[in-house]
Amino acid sequence: DSGVTQTPKHLITATGQRVTLRCSPRSGDLSVYWYQQSLDQGLQFLIQYYNGEERAKGNILERFSAQQFPDLHSELNLSSLELGDSALYFCASSVRPLHETQYFGPGTRLLVL
Amino acid sequence: QKEVEQDPGPLSVPEGAIVSLNCTYSNSAFQYFMWYRQYSRKGPELLMYTYSSGNKEDGRFTAQVDKSSKYISLFIRDSQPSDSATYLCAMSAGAAGNKLTFGGGTRVLVKP
Questions:
Q1: Which residues of B65-74 are buried (b: 16+ CB within 10 A; e: fewer)?
Q2: Tens digits of per-residue pLDDT, A69-85?
Q3: Fewer CB within 10 Å: N-end or C-end of chain A?
């Protein structure tokens, strides 16, 4: 158990809908990262937050957005969902934004029908 | 061409054998190198973390980095069936937002 928690574990929804994925980092970690893992693209970095502020952006679509709250938990919002958004979404956390070790949560499996 | 290349496998070995995994990369800015293990339907688990070139050993695991060749390796000694998983290499330039770039993963099967 990495200490990173994610909810829900599974999510089934329809195209065009909007969902919110939640992540609680390990105790003491200030930085949160979101990743998408699909069969064809592998594990892709989406976005990073540190202590409430956006630090880095990767291959995140405009339909997706995220934020980190004062209690350090983070939410990833996915809107106007398409079939291709079906994937595993992982959250990871680390102590500092320059710290190279990230600990991953168990993921949220999203299925868009 | 992907920034990080990794043979997808599967790599099948008998129990007790040495598992040899590797990744090549193209971005010379990468300075931090990691290996993760991922069991089916689980999150990646950090195994090894190295900075710059050199070797690092931790129990049955040895990580090697050759920055001149842009090549990293992971060796697993005395492999066990519980080592059967997908192994992902990951790299970061460090300062630039600390984002990791992953290889596609190698599936390893250790047969009893």
A1: beeeebebbb
A2: 999 999 999 999 999 99
A3: N
